[in-house]
Amino acid sequence: MDAGVIPFHTPGHKQGIGMERAFRDFVGDNVLAIDLTQIRGLDDLLQPEGPLVEAQELAADAFGAEHTYFLINGSTSGNQCMMMTALNPGEKIAIPRNSHKSAMGGLIMSGGYPVWMKPEVDEDLHMDHTVTPETVRATMVEHPDIKAVYVVSPTYYGVAADLVGIAAVAHEYGVPLLVDEAWGPHFHFHPALPASAMEAGADMCINSTHKMLGSLSQTAMLHVQGTRIKLDRLKAVYKLFLSTSPNLVLVASLDVARRQMALDGPALLSRTIEIANDTRRRLNDIPNVYCFGEELEGRPGVFDLDPTKVTITVKRLGYTGYEAEEILRRRYNVQCELADLFNTLALFTIGTTPDAADELVYGVRELSREDRPVDIFSPSGVLDARIKRGTYKLPRIPPLRILPREAFLARTEFVPFKKSAGRICAEVITPYPPGIPVISPGEEITREIISYLELEKKAGVRMQGPYDGDLKQIRVVVE
Ligand SMILES: Cc1ncc(COP(=O)(O)O)c(C=O)c1O
């Protein structure tokens, strides 16, 4: 940026002069001064030739990839880029049923044919873990025409898959392994963390740098190695997805997050892991509170664990994870990352201080002392009944009648849910937890699915995805 050059170019706020004063004062002039795009002397993320080539090469080097691409619309766009690169319309991809919803976006955009894989479900913790190499192999044997294997590792709760084993199966069948490693951008920088997807031999992966490292929200990276991914195709897709006006504040934050990790990553992460492990120990000392750790390794779908994720299982306190999260926020000023029926998840990163950890432990300890009759699980107790009945077990994945893309783009109508058997679903319906879609676009609505979801509704389970959150109506394809 040339100081003093008179700006007749975008962005319209002209380094803050044209911006609402209160906001300008709030964010500060420095942020606005570097909010510049596409002017002479600055590089272009879509066609980098100067500093952005160097920044991405340095990132590739730091994260153990051959090529790295900066993303400014999160791992969401990374999932879309991976699918669009690896698949042509109608081509099959092996994909876990519990993938993030942006993977469905990638399927809709690419026209890919999902061959769903069941993740391992942990009945104790009521959460799903990862898919195993055995599941991937069985899927490949059944569908030898699969063109790519896609997995999520680690999970939101920090459970990592056997990526070396999965890569070996994918490569034996001559197809690339794509990994949604949104939650693992720190893995490459510390020996106590699970192997990163690149280390494990994946061909392409995405990292939500903003989730676990020091870059700004929306920033992420896509890493590639080897020869199974066509780089020319990836570059074309990348250009299709990226704004022609990338925000340089975001881009710069990716570069500094890389620099920070390359220079100080191991030391910063050692401290983070120590604080997280110490917190886990202290929380486990609180009666009726459980935070899983190494003892979980070896369970199906649990190959390795990220210690920086502290999952606080509160069911024996008689609270749901949602209630615990709410109480911790309201009474103890502690905001966790996520809650589900049984758990509240605390995220430890290089920004977590020992004082913050103390506050979390204090809040959970106080919560455990509250006079709460154990066994009351929800106001109605129905959730508990549901779990005892074993209805937690998901129904069978219904037959795929048309591709997700076709269902998404088709003419649709709303019909009463109870009478929708035999119709083709045009939306995703995900009871939460466990967060695994029961039906997705293009699949036939079966009677089994209707009765399962009706039960879930009665139990007060939240449904993610449908237009009608009460699921009285469902959007189906007009045939
Ligand atoms: C597994 C997984 N993949 C992808 C994403 C999307 O990431 P982003 O928020 O960076 O777009 C998320 C977001 O939570 C996620 O959990």
Descriptive key words:
four-stranded antiparallel sheet; single chain; 479 residues; alpha+beta; binds pyridoxal-5'-phosphate; Aspartate Aminotransferase, domain 1; Ornithine Decarboxylase, Chain A, domain 4; globular; Aspartate Aminotransferase, domain 2
What can you tell me about this protein's structure?
There is one protein chain. The chain is an alpha+beta fold and 479 residues long. The chain folds into 3 domains: 30-260, Aspartate Aminotransferase, domain 2, CATH 3.40.640.10; 272-369, Aspartate Aminotransferase, domain 1 (Alpha-Beta Complex); 387-477, Orn/Lys/Arg decarboxylase, C-terminal domain (Ornithine Decarboxylase, Chain A, domain 4). It contains 16 helices and 19 strands. It has helices at residues 21-27, 29-33, 51-63, 74-86, 101-110, 133-142, 163-172, 197-200, 209-212, 231-241, 248-284, 321-332, 354-369, 382-389, 404-409, 447-458; strands at residues 67-71, 92-96, 113-117, 121-122, 127-128, 146-152, 159-160, 177-180, 204-207, 220-224, 290-291, 304-305, 309-313, 338-339, 343-347, 412-416, 430-432, 462-464, 473-477. It has a 7-stranded mixed β-sheet with strand order 1-10-9-8-6-2-3, sandwiched between helices. A 4-stranded antiparallel β-sheet has the order 11-13-15-14. The chain has a two-stranded antiparallel ribbon with strand order 4-5. 45% of the residues are buried. Residues 374-380 have low confidence and may be disordered. The structure holds pyridoxal-5'-phosphate.
